[in-house]
Predict the structure of D-3-phosphoglycerate dehydrogenase.
Amino acid sequence: MATSASSTINFSTKPSRTSLSWKTRLASSSAFAVAAVSPRRDQRQYPRFVIFSMGAKPTVLVAEKLGEAGVDLLKEFADVDCSYNLSPEELRNKISLCDALIVRSGTKVSREVFESSGGRLKVVGRAGVGIDNVDLAAATEHGCLVVNAPTANTVAAAEHGIALLTAMARNIAQADASVKAGKWLRNKYVGVSLVGKTLAVMGFGKVGSEVARRAKGLGMHVIAHDPYAPADRARAIGVELVSFDEAIASADFISLHMPLTPATKKVLNDETFAKMKKGVRIVNVARGGVIDEDALVRALDAGIVAQAALDVFTVEPPSKDSKLIQHENITATPHLGASTMEAQEGVAIEIAEAVVGALKGELAATAVNAPMVPAEVLSELKPFVELAEKLGRLAVQLVTGGSGVKSVKVTYGSARAPDDLDTRLLRAMITKGLIEPISSAFVNLVNADFTAKQRGLRIAEERSHLNGSPESPLEFIRVQIANVESKFASAISDSGEIRVEGRVKDGIPHLTKVGSFEVDVSLEGSIILCRQVDQPGMIGKVGSILSEENVNVSFMSVGRIAPRKHAVMAIGVDEQPSKESLKRIGEIPAVEEFVYLKL
């Protein structure tokens, strides 16, 4: 008989000696920081412990211009070397003498940089939000923490978004250029009013919510789309959360504040432009890649999009002969979102504090890469770590509607005593799976709880004690999301939550339950879930459609309530089927609903 014990994340819990790094004191009076670093997968050796003296000042290399206040803060703790415009070779030559490196977006911190450090480099600080220029995998392999400064430029970016919004509506840039060219074309540059117009804020995080506040002050009706935005925070500033399609279809103006992820890359494309109100106006101060720039030119030429104001581009700087830049209905600025004196100073202080804290051995809330885990822990939990992340990814992709994910319950089925099962890493990977597919956040053991709390996501853990051998750490992991709608209704359990459950079989994660339906499919590649009337030939019909497109089926499983009743078919595929193939599957008469889920 199984018994269970519940616990909820305590966000104020301090790291214990089971943390991956801590400070200690040797016999002398000098303080030392100790970090456990596991070997690479291709190395058969024990974890190594890196010990560096906290008595001597560490060296921080500042490779790009940093605000004076930040440099002064660094100098209180470390020796600071401000060397700007280093070539890649010069950076590699210097890095072996440095404990920390601070960059902006112009310096590439490549694998070669980490290899050249000889293990001395402990922290890389990115003065800003994006970390595209830092090789995170190499940093993690070399035991180097990467931190960023995600909050200091929030107001500056929001203000720039509003500046572009108003300048676009009143043709400020075009009229200015016209007057300076000696022309006086008052009738040509008649604008549009903002009062009473609907603004869709796509991404209701820090910057998006600040843009919404300011737009409300301009008399605009503001709606927003963000699957993680707390509804109460939106209501507090008079913003209605809606679905993606509803937002783009009803907006007069669209302001983009979403991160660039595989899910958001070119999210504004020919298909989505076709759903928009004719004459819509678009502002982008987020990431250039979220817009298909060729499709935007076509939408401008067709009159679907009346104007666009862009601060970011897929390639920066864009080419001089870019059709987008040269289009008369485009207002462009050279990535100025964070470029105010106040924001630059704030970023400098924020990154300096993060780097100094990391050098002191403190856990950093703005860490963006996974810390090293002792090899013996990874060895035992590795397949369950993979299972945990993939269950999180599956669960969040099943969510639809504008209410957002707020409450998640995780159940661990195990024959081990609660004290013999440390679930911090598993919880972090579930959080990673829930948040990363629709966010720019990098979730790891260090920042998982902080990131969840920041997004209003409450994760409750429950241990279900099973009778049996404690040789395996876990029998199953179950993830439930409460108070949400599902794009696949069969994923809703009898108690009303989205429910997915999985096990590890022969070292491979498997999905074993969706809602109330038992299935058994390997969590490799991607998955198609179909709810169908249980009747002969269904597997063949779906398989034939996929085989015509040369989509390889890795696993197929059918779970049913009773013969000839309803069943859920889970299909593992190695390649992504085309939209036409998925449409054909949905048109099979016995198929009542289906969903394609990326892993």
Notes: Residues 523-598 form a domain with the Alpha-Beta Plaits fold (CATH 3.30.70.260). The two ends are 34 Å apart (CA to CA). The chain has 18 helices and 28 strands.
